[in-house]
Automatic annotation (TrEMBL):
This is FAD-binding dehydrogenase. Its cofactor is FAD. SUPFAM superfamilies: FAD/NAD(P)-binding domain. It comes from Arenibacterium halophilum. NCBIfam families: PRK12834.1. Keywords: Flavoprotein, Oxidoreductase.
Length: 552
């Protein structure tokens, strides 16, 4: 006798949405997670809450004209699908674009979500009209950031739990998917000892018992591999990006361990596009870490000068905020696993944002009063979390002259690779172009283009200015580490979220959604992401599974 209609492995965003929707339809659901209750919501809690949506009132109010056709063209130019196994990923991408231009905003608004009025322009791309990148701003920052995204789903799941439709079981680590005659019939695993660690910190793995849960449908929503550097290195696409970095920082908690992927394969699931991944090049070592080797990503505006480890300027379009993987390839081609931003105080004040709910307490509070106080009334200086990194972060160097700055950069990195006179000449040449309304410098052109957008001019892009003018100082350099984050490939699924085995046939009773399914189909981003599509894919994937008659 089954314990439930569906058992869901992983109480992150995808699992919460699927559980809620199934229970809304009267299904009985068991929702399991290896972490304790305080980590409910998984990675989404820590996220910035940016969502990729298309042709919204927020965009229109900012003067942005978007459409499903333009977004689909951008998506396909970025994804560059080129493999036979891209069949389901491509169909998921098309379905998501339709959703993001259609019912998505109304559905989320009905759940209580709201968005910051200035739409962000993330991942501007590789410089070609038909290639990678967002033609227009589409990054909708949710009021309350990540906690604001999960809150309504957590509340509804708890209501269902109270009514007995959902059983929430924390500290249940799934080690096996139970099958009979090729069909999934349940899961088995270890019960882990309680742990009162802080949310997001690693929890103990002490086994205190075991368990089995039987259900008509088994749904895997266990997240990606970004917290498991061994898996990241094993899957690393050397041919496209060069050798895996020796040193990386972790952009995700330790529970993003990828264990369920092999467990799902053992039950008939099939991973595709495992070599496609999304790691950032602007990682900082967190001076106040929550999880091991905790890295924080800078979401940069376009003005910082970007140098490789040898002090050479990265070629356009490897500009801040443009082409994540193109820039990663360029950085790794030097044989080093870090790069540098060189900037002025004026740039850090206007352009540095840090990804993560805890790094944006004002937006996370969802109170205008806090946002105005933190961003407009704080007097001189960048927002407090950015200033804290500048003062305490291991990767920051601050100096009055370029010679002192370069000396400190050399001290930080070791090896005396940087030459102060070469860098001075480079910055002087760059500075001279800021007074030139024509300009031949591609980065200054990009800054001017960014400032054509009201949102960027208002809060994201500093007026072009001379870095070497002391009035704009002090000078700042930031060592940027490679930060692991997202898994673009994953378990192959059809449009119901049902796993498709290596033989191309559906695996009876077995489903996947969210990051473990490559956000849809086994990798709906293809090779490149447009940002906001990760949370978006978890919402969409959970929603589809929850509504599918194929489940339970
Ligand atoms: C700092 C940060 C900022 C981000 N910002 C954004 C953003 O602005 N926009 C955007 O689109 N995306 C963003 N993302 C990415 C996005 O948050 C994630 O991709 C998404 O939340 C993944 O959700 P998920 O439900 O698939 O998996 P997860 O959130 O990883 O949840 C999976 C759950 O499964 C559990 N689990 C795993 N294995 C087992 C097992 N064997 N047994 C039992 N339980 C198991 C885990 O404990 C976990 O709770 C950000 C991520 C981070 C970390």
């Amino acid at each position: 006798m089954a314990d439930a209609d569906a058992v869901i492995v992983g109480a992150g965003l995808a699992g919460l949405v699927a559980a809620m929707e199934l229970a809304d339809r009267g299904k009985r659901v068991v929702l399991l997670d290896q972490e304790p209750e305080q980590s409910l919501g998984g990675q989404a809690f820590w996220s910035l809450g940016g969502l990729f949506m298309i042709d919204t009132p927020e965009q229109r109010r900012m003067g942005i004209r978007d459409s499903a056709a333009l977004a689909l063209a951008d998506w396909m130019g970025s994804a560059q699908f080129d493999r036979p196994e891209d069949h389901w990923p491509r169909r998921w991408a098309e379905a998501y674009v339709e959703f993001a231009a259609g019912e998505m905003r109304g559905w989320l608004r009905g759940m209580g979500l709201r968005w910051f009025p200035v739409v962000g322009w993330a991942e501007r791309g590789g410089g070609y009209a038909d290639g990678h990148g967002n033609s227009v701003p589409r990054f909708h920052l949710t009021w309350g950031t990540g906690p604001g995204v999960i809150a309504p789903f957590v509340a509804r799941v708890r209501e269902h739990a109270k009514a007995g439709r959902i059983t929430l079981s924390f500290r249940h680590r799934v080690d096996r998917i139970l099958t009979r005659a090729g069909a999934a019939i349940g899961v088995a695993g270890a019960r882990l000892a309680p742990d009162d660690m802080a949310r997001g910190a690693p929890s103990n793995r002490e086994v205190v018992g075991d368990f089995e849960v039987y259900a008509a449908s088994v749904i895997i929503t266990s997240g990606g591999i970004g917290g498991n550097f061994d898996l990241v290195r094993k899957a690393w696409p050397r041919d496209r990006l060069g050798p895996a970095p020796r040193r990386m920082v972790a952009g995700v908690p330790a529970h993003v361990d990828g264990r369920m992927i092999a467990i799902s394969e053992a039950a008939g699931g099939h991973v595709i596009n495992g070599d496609r991944m999304w790691h950032y090049t602007e990682g900082l070592q967190n001076w106040d870490p929550i999880w091991p080797n905790h890295g924080i990503r800078i979401l940069p505006g376009p003005s910082s000068l970007w140098l490789d480890a040898n002090g050479r300027r990265l070629p356009a379009p490897c500009l801040p905020g443009f082409d994540t993987l193109g820039t990663l390839r360029e950085i790794l081609s030097t044989g080093h696993d870090y790069s540098w931003f060189v900037l002025s105080q004026k740039v850090i004040e206007k352009e540095f944002a840090l990804s993560g709910s805890e790094q944006n307490p004002d937006l996370t509070s969802a109170k205008w009063r806090e946002v105005i106080r933190a961003r407009l009334l704080s007097g001189k200086g960048a927002p407090a979390p950015v200033e804290a990194f500048k003062a305490k972060g291991a990767d920051f160097v601050v100096a009055k002259t370029i010679e002192d700055l370069v000396a400190d950069m050399n001290r930080l990195a070791g090896g005396n690779r940087l030459d102060a006179s070469t860098i001075r000449a480079m910055v002087e040449a760059r500075d001279a172009q800021t007074d030139n309304p024509f300009t031949k410098d591609a980065q200054i052109m990009a800054i001017l283009a960014a400032r054509n957008y009201r949102g960027d001019r208002l809060i994201r892009t500093a007026k072009p200015h001379r870095f070497l003018d002391p009035a704009n100082g002090p000078l700042i350099a930031v060592r940027l580490n490679i930060l692991t984050r997202k898994t673009l490939g994953g378990l192959q699924t059809d449009l119901n979220g049902q796993m498709i085995g290596a033989n191309g046939a559906p695996v009876p009773g077995l489903f996947a959604a969210g990051e473990v399914a490559g956000f849809g189909g086994g990798g709906y981003h293809g090779y490149n992401a447009l940002e906001g599509t990760f949370l978006g894919g978890c919402l969409f994937g959970g929603h589809r599974i929850g509504q599918s008659d194929a489940v339970a």
